[in-house]
Amino acid sequence: MQVSERWLRTFVDPPLGSEELAHLLTMSGVEVESSSPVAPPFSGVVVGQVLSVQKHPNADRLTVCSVDAGTGAPLAVVCGAPNVAAGMKAPLALVGATLPGGLAIKATTMRGVESHGMLCSGRELGLSDDHSGLLALPSDARPGRDVREVLALDDRVFTLKLTPNRADCLSVLGVAREVSALTRAKLQAPDIRSVPPSSDAKFPVKISDPRGCGRFAGRVIRNLNAAALTPAWMKERLERAGQRSISALVDVTNYVMLELGRPLHVYDLDKLSGGIDVRVGRKGERVKLLNEMTVDVDETVVCITDRSGPIGLGGIMGGDSTRAELATRNIFLESAFFFPEAIAGRARRYNFTSDAAHRFERGVDFDNNVAGIERATRLILDICGGEPGPTVDMVAKLPERKPVRLRVARAHKVLGVPVPAAEIADIFARLGLAHTREGDAFVVTPPSFRFDIEIEEDLIEEVARVHGFDRIPARPPRAPVVMRPQREAHRSRHALRRRLADADYREAINFSFVDPQWESDFAAETNPIRVLNPIASHLAVMRTTLIGSLVAAVAYNVARKAPRVRIFEMGRVYLRDAAAREGEEDVAGVRQPMRVGAIAYGPAVEEQWGVPDKRTADFYDAKADVEALLAPKVARYEAAVHPALHPGRSARVILDETPIGWVGELHPRWQQKYGLPSPAALFELDLEALGRVDLPRYREVSKYPPVIRDRAMEFDETLPAARILEEMERNRPPVVKEIRLFDFYRGKGVERGRKSLAFRVVMQDTARTLTDAEADAAMAQLTELLAAKFGAKLRT
Question: CA-CA distance, 174 to 363, in Å (whole number)?
Fold first, then answer.
């Protein structure tokens, strides 16, 4: 939003300089992003009236002009502009003048003719890029008058960076209200009077969609001159607000929008077919807009229609078929109110925006429809003439202004400073907020132009803005320091992060909302929790697994030529669970467990001379990382199928007889789909289970040498080795301290359908050295156990 300071000061003129005013607005929450002069500095340039133009005697493209500069005697000025003509008025830089860039004007001789000054173009004064001819000045400008004064160049443009809730400041009047409230300077709003009708001409209007359009005011004006020229003062204000002049009718509607914040639209009355009906669009309908785009409409879009169908998008843009042109003689002037929720996002859906949509989707004053019509009517009559009919105001439904309660004690607590109740009442009065006092509280009814006041905190913000943020002292928070006991049976998340970092993983932080296709691919989830208002179409659901985010991160890095990627993430997943109850951090029906996931892609180790082969990370690498993460606890692994993992290279991780996650290699189908040239190994575990550890227990260390024996046994090929180890651990003799599987063999010497497993058994006693007989007896006991339990036989 651009605001001319000169225009603003016609509404409110506080005793502050430009920079002070900009700072005050910024500190109140209406940020002035920049404050720039409308013209660069120059001096000595006056209005010059060209009295006569003669051909230069020694140059074909130059003329010698006699110019009245208000000095009493005409000045001879050599000029090369093609548009110079007797009678025109143009800027004249007198001898001694200084132009932008430091150019000093001196008396000079050009091709034998003396020149006493320079007639200037807009480019030479830094006002525009046009240097095709002289800058024409208003015909009523007096010769000799300073051009800066004539063109009001001692002005500045404030560029406001407004937050979406401050739609009331999208007009000069809105900013003036702010300045008046902040400085107590008197607000001089435009004196808008009703324009009496000179005819009975009306145009029928119907509101079929009161949920989208709550109010529609209109007026017929006949026999006007649409080709009339826009006054220079209006062009100037529009240009400094960032609007280019188009035609008188369009300029008037833009001017009223910038002045009052009231979007208007002009229809060519003779192009309308039947009455106007404001309704929702219908499937299959199309409309060509003023920006030459043809768009499809549906039931979610408010349309302005007549008998021919849609002729515009309500609150967004008018249609091309009923546009007012220079030949237009009769118009219908519209001033409507559209609910923000009916307009929000519709323009962006069609990949464009408009000034009207920008305002309506934030909230437009629904009480100034008629004022906007009357203001525009007066300007049109003054510029284009015409015969106005009566203003017709149709109200279907207006927003309900619910009172908002502000507790003084609550305001003190939030702000941290005691703002007296009397000052709060004064602030509300200055802001135009109608209020009553109920004990230690204020009840405020928001005005029609403030859509951002709905809860108590909104009123507290208003108090803080006007009281002054800079008057609220900055105090660091004070909190008692309490030494909390650290449970020895609990492992922190940071400790787990360190373990993963030590294993060469780097942490990633991803969104909790993901692509629905990830849920289908990696979790076989067809009904995830959907996000009501996603920030992007591909981030539409809440994740039930971390795998999708990890695979996407790997694919992103691989696409950028990263040869080896190892990343992990700790984060929540979101699961439907009817048993989940509402809590401070919980939502009913949704379970939100924390999980840790990691993925390894590329070589198992960095390239180095000590590792000749470039083996890629596989299932066993991921399993080793899981074991390091769980230590000192030991999990068991159960072959199982997971939708994201390779069917033959995946396992469920079970700790203390409870499944806590998965480990495996990425399914080849997803490896190909997501663009990974080689396999990736990954795991996903429940974070709460990882945080539980056993308390340390004392165990006597033997000073006597261990006895180590190896035993190879043949088993059925389908028997899992983990089950064998579990049975041996459960029934091992007292002297056996450790049993490890160190060899697996299938082939020559072993029957088909059988496999050979070799175990290393470590035996030791804390009181004495074991004898061979004791060691042999322990080994025999284990051998008999395996034979009886699994039908194993000693391999010979």
Answer: 13
* Token pair of 237 as six digits: 């204000």
Tokens representing 67 are: 């110019």
d(CA 71, CA 95) in angstroms, rounded, equals 12
Instruction: Name the one residue in this structure whose structure tokens are 């290393």.
Output: 760
Q: Judge contact between 360 and 319, C-beta under 8 A.
A: no
Radius of gyration, CA atoms only, the chain: 41
DSSP track, 104-121: EP--EEETTEEE-SEE--
Q: What are φ and ψ of residue 469, in 5° steps? A: -60, -35
Give the chain's mean pLDDT.
Answer: 93
User: Among candidates 361, 341, 138, 378, which has minimal Cα distance to 259?
Assistant: 378
Name residue, tokens 């060691």: 775
For 75-113, write each residue's pLDDT tens digit. Answer: 999 999 999 999 999 999 999 999 998 899 999 999 889
| Gap between the Cα atoms of 687 and 494, Å rounded | 12
Amino acid identity at 156: R
What residue type is assigned to position 746 of the chain? R
Asked if 785 and 714 touch (Cβ cutoff 8 Å), the reply is: no
**Backbone conformation region of residue 747, classed left if phi is above 0, alpha if psi is from -120 to 50, else beta:** left
Q: How many helices and strands, by DSSP H and E, does the chain display?
A: 21, 41
Question: Which pair of tokens denotes residue 99?
Answer: 């132009």
Percent above pLDDT 90 for the chain: 84
**If you search the block for the tokens 């060899």, which residue do you land on?**
743
**Residue 475 vs residue 256, higher pLDDT:** 256
Q: Is the pLDDT of residue 674 over 90?
A: yes
Rounded CA-CA distance 319/325 in Å is 13
> Which pLDDT does position 508 carry in this prediction?
96
Q: Dihedral of the CA atoms 237, 241, 243, 247 (nearest 10)?
A: -20
Where does the pLDDT of residue 597 fall: very low under 50, low under 70, confident under 90, or very high at 90 and above? Answer: very high
460 phi-psi bin (left φ>0, alpha ψ -120 to 50, beta other): alpha
Residue in the structure block whose two tokens are 């859906």: 349
Give the model's pLDDT for residue 725: 93
Strand pairing category for 276-280 and 205-207: parallel
